[in-house]
Each structure stands twice: as C-alpha cells, then as structure tokens.
Design goal:
The complex is a heterodimer of chains A (158) and B (288).
Chain A (H helix, E strand, L loop, with lengths): L2 H20 L24 H9 L31 H4 L2 H10 L40 H11 L5
Chain B lengths: L1 H12 L18 E4 L2 E4 L3 E3 L10 E3 L7 H6 L9 H12 L9 H5 L14 E2 L6 E2 L1 H12 L10 H12 L15 H11 L10 H7 L4 E2 L2 E2 L10 E3 L4 E3 L1 H10 L11 H13 L9 E3 L1
Parallel strand pairs in B: 9-11
Antiparallel strand pairs in B: 1-2, 3-4, 5-6, 7-8, 9-10
Helix pairs in contact in B: 3-6, 7-10, 9-10
Classes of the chains: A mainly alpha (158), B alpha+beta (288).
Chain lengths: 158, 288
Amino acid sequence: MTRRAWLHGLAAAIISAAPALAETAPNDVVFADGAVEASLTGAPGDPGEGARVMTTAALGNCVACHQIDAMPDVEFPGDIGPALDGAADRWSEAQLRGIVIDAKHTFPDSFMPGMYKTSGFIRPGDGYTGKASDGDPPPILTAAQVEDVVAYLLTLTD
Amino acid sequence: MRRMFTTQLAATALGLTLAGAAWADPVEDTLIVDTDDGEIEFVTHAPAPDHLKGVVDEIWSGWHYREDETRDLQRDDFDNPAMVFADRGLDRWNAEIGANGESCASCHNGPETFKGLRAVMPRVDENTGKLMIMEDYIQSCVTERMGLEPWRLTGDQMKDMLALISMQSRGEIVNVAIDGPAQPFWEHGKELYYTRFGQLEMACANCHEDNQGMMIRADHLSQGQINGFPTYRLKDAGMVSAQQRFVGCVRDTRAETFAAGSDELKAIELYVASRGNGLSVEGVSVRH
C-alpha cells in the first residue's frame, strides 16, 4: 500500500465514523435546567431543512400545535402551543435545543412530545401502525434534524 | 385545565396573547332534528356530572365542534347518512339467520323493546358481574342463541345493529351507573383516561380535557364524548363505533393500541360514557 492510499483510507474511515462518534445518543443527552448546551452533532444545523422538518407531518409536525407567522404558507396550523414567532428572543440556543429534544425538562407535564427521546414510554408503538414497537422506538427526529430545527428556530426573532 | 392555565400564565408573562382564542369555543347552536315522528330536541350541552366537578364545568356533544355543513346533516333524518345503516340494521334484525332460523325479532319482537338501553350502556351484567358494552350483548345472542360464528366486533353487521339499537334511545339522557358493581371498572377506565400512552406521551385527557376547543392542525378538538355514537364519519365515509374511535385515538399517540372489545377499551368506554351523563343519546350522529 502506498502512503497516499493509506492516508486516503484513513481519511475515509474518519469521515464515515465521524458523525456517529460525535453524535449524542438520546439517552446520553445532558440537560441543565431544561437546556442542552452541546450540539447533538457538533455540526451547525440547516435552517431550511429545519423548516421542512417542522412542517412535515411524519417528522416534527410542529405546526400541528404551533402557529408561525414566518411560515404563511402553512395551512391550518394548530393553536395548542404558543406561536413561535420571537422564540429566539425568549430562549437561548441551548434552551431551544432542550425544548425540541424533550420539552418536559422545561415545562413539566408539557403536552409537547419529546422529539429526541427513545425510552420511558408506556406502550410505545411502531410509528402509527398501532403495533408494539420492537424494543425502544427510534427518536421522532434524528440528531441532525434536531439541529436543523434549532437552526430554524434561531431565525425567529421579532 | 392546569396545563392551559400554565400556558396562559407563561404567555401572559411573556407579553403574548394566545393565538386562536377565537376558535376556542364549541359553537353555540341547538340540535332539533326533523324525524318521521316530528321534531326531537336534543340536550347537547349540559352541566358536568358530579364526578367531574372541579375538573370540567360543562359538557358538550362533539356535534358543537363540527362545521356548519356537518352539523346540518344531522338536523334532518333524510340528510343524515347514518340512517341508511340503521335501516340496514332493521333488515338484519328481521333476517332469519340463526342456525335454526332464528332472527333477533323472534326473541325480542321489535327493536323498540330496547328503548332506553343505549342510555345506560356500558353496564355491569347482573348475572355474570362482567362489564358489558352493547357489542357484548349482541355477540352473545349471535353466538350462543343463534349458533353463528361471532361477528367482527367492528364489522358492518355489528355496527348496523349498534346503529339500530342506539336509535331506539335517541333523545334519552345518558345515565350510566358508576357506583356499586360498576365502580372498579369505572376506576380502571378513569386511570386509563389519564395515562399518557405512546411515544407522543398523550392521554385522552390531554386532548379532550386540557385542549378541547383548540385546533390540532385542522382538527377542532372536542371533549371526545360518545353520546353520538355510532357516528357516520365523513372522512371514512362509513360508520365508526366508540371502540373503533378509541383504537384510532390511542394509535395516534404512536402507541401500541388496545384491541376493540378489550377489557381496557371497555373500561374506557364506561368512563367516557359517564363523562357524558346528562347529554342526549343522538341515535346516530354525523362527524367528520
């Protein structure tokens, strides 16, 4: 093996292993007063992708409960939670990350589902099939999707 | 209640007003239905029964949360798409389908002999001590007295019969027993009603007590009353029984649901029915 090929191989190994190594697993998330300081991925989120996650029913489905004036195209947003406009003025990045990961650390007994949470459920199902999940269910959002949503929320300033 | 209060408090503290408060209320309206036998006025809004005091003040039929057009469909039997199924139920009632040619009619005469039954169901059977939903009574006749294979609990035969029997009590006030032999079943149902199931960690109470009147996306959340069941659901273009609706609501929390007819959903049916004590049986209703 030439030195170059060897280096190339190493770089490839690092790149493919990097996200998995840096990603914080749902059960390892550390909350401080509801906030989560560290990014789940170590990489900045993509606000555009965050907006898609928030408005897609099978993903975050945030608009089922929240209105967002900055998203005028969303039809029939729900009004169960507060409108999210100005969220970035009211909460820090770490607080927003904590709310998206599991809002119950910020608002005890909140109606808002934990988006990056895999354990502690009563009769968890396999998605919306009504069947039992096989072991702990995967989180509703991936680590990267959580960071994308946080990146979008940070654009919501008054 | 408590959670809404917290949200309101938080929102006020942050100088926000809760968006959508204008939609929050069930529509003020009166349900008077044109029938072959003249007009019937229904109680669709009443003070909450005693066991809900301090938790819920007033109870509202799901009819009040639906759009104008949907509510109108229920004002006239001629427009109500559920009537077809009650009529089909009458055909089944008279059909000599039993192993020895029995029909429902051959034991019970006309369906009007069941007047009042729907208003007190579910109830504990005096002889067996078991909690019975209407389906259980129907099923025992089908299998034990007519010698047939069991009907599917949420199948057409069963729902047609539920519709027919429910119609015999329409306008009567729901009054299910929650004490005596019913009490342990009722307590079980209550516990389940407040249990946060599934990956979304939602209890019946989160949607139908804490957030009734609010919009969850395009759906106006009602109190989840069952006085109108079975109901014709426009979305499904078919009849839905209370058991079926419960299965769907639990599934929507990303939970492993309970089966229709399970002990859990029967207990929930008793408890939910008791939250509607004081509302009229609507016979067969229309929802979306």
